[in-house]
Amino acid sequence: MTSRLSVEDLSFAYRDREVLRGITFPVAAGEVLGLVGPNGCGKTTLIRCVDGMLTPRGGRVLLSGREIRTMHRREVARAMAYVPQSAGNHTSSTVFETVLMGRRPYLNWTVSPEDEEKVAEALDLLDLRGLALRQVGQLSGGERQRVMIARALVQETGVILLDEPTSNLDVCHQMAAMEVLSGLAEERGLAVVIALHDLNLAATYCHRLLVLSAGSVYGYGAPEEVLTEEMLRTVYGIKAVVKRDLSAPYMVPVRSGRLGEGV
Predict the structure, then answer these.
(1) What distance in Å separates the CA atoms of residue 47 and residue 27, rounded to the nearest whole number?
(2) Strands 191-195 and 159-163
(3) Residue 19 and residue 56 in contact, taking contact as beta carbons nearer than 8 Å
(4) Residue 263 DSSP label
(5) pTM for this one?
(6) What SS3 class is residue 118?
(7) Cα–Cα distances in Å, from 125 out to 3, 153, 251?
(8) How does pLDDT run across 58-112, given as a tens digit for each residue?
(9) Helix, strand or coil for residue 3?
C-alpha cells in the first residue's frame, strides 16, 4: 500500500551547518506519527522541509507517490495542511474568517454554504463556536492555537503537519486536540505528523514515534518500542523510569537532587 506521505533520505543544511541527514520514514493513511526529540534536534526544520517551505539538500518528499517538488503549490495545499508552532496574532481577522482561510485552495470568487458549514464543523470540534466573532488578536495563545488547528482541518487534506500544536494548551485542551486529530486520522484516513515535547502525550495518541537526535533518526517505531529508559538517557540526558502498566507506556522522571544533574 502506498503511503500518504513518504520522506526518503532527506538532508538539509543552513549554509555550511548540517541540520538534518538521512531522514527516512513513511506515514500511512489513518496513522498519527509523533516527532519527538530535545530542543534543537531538527523537528521544526524537518516539518518545514516536508511542507516545502524549505528546500532539502538531498532526498525526496512524496505525497501519495508524487514528489512534492513536481507539484503546483495549489495542488500541495489541497493535499497537505500545516499548523505552525506560533499561531500569530491576526489582529484584524475574526476566528471565523481565520478558519475560513483554510478553504482558500477551493475558493473561487464567493464563499459557498458548504465552505461555511465546514468552518462551523471545525469550530465545534475544537470548542471554538462561542469565539467565532472574536478577533484572533484578542484570544489567548492556547485559543489561537486551536484556531490554527481548525483552519488546517477545513483544508480537507490527506496529510496534516503540526509543529508543537499543544504547547500553549492546558492539559484538558491538549487531550481534546489530540483526541480530535487521532479520531479524524482514523475516520478520514488522514496521515498526521505532530512534533511534540510531551513524551507521555505522544505515547498515548501516536501510532508511531520518530525520535530525532542531533539531526538524525535515533529511533522509529511503536511507542512501546521507542520509549525506553536508554533512549531517555541517551537522547534527553535524563534518568527516568518507563512504566508499562497502562494502555500506553509513560515515563516518570527521577530527581537527581542536584540542579542540572539529570543522569
Answers:
(1) 13
(2) parallel
(3) no
(4) -
(5) 0.90
(6) helix
(7) 27, 10, 30
(8) 999 999 999 999 998 889 988 999 998 876 655 678 999 999 999 888 777 788 8
(9) coil
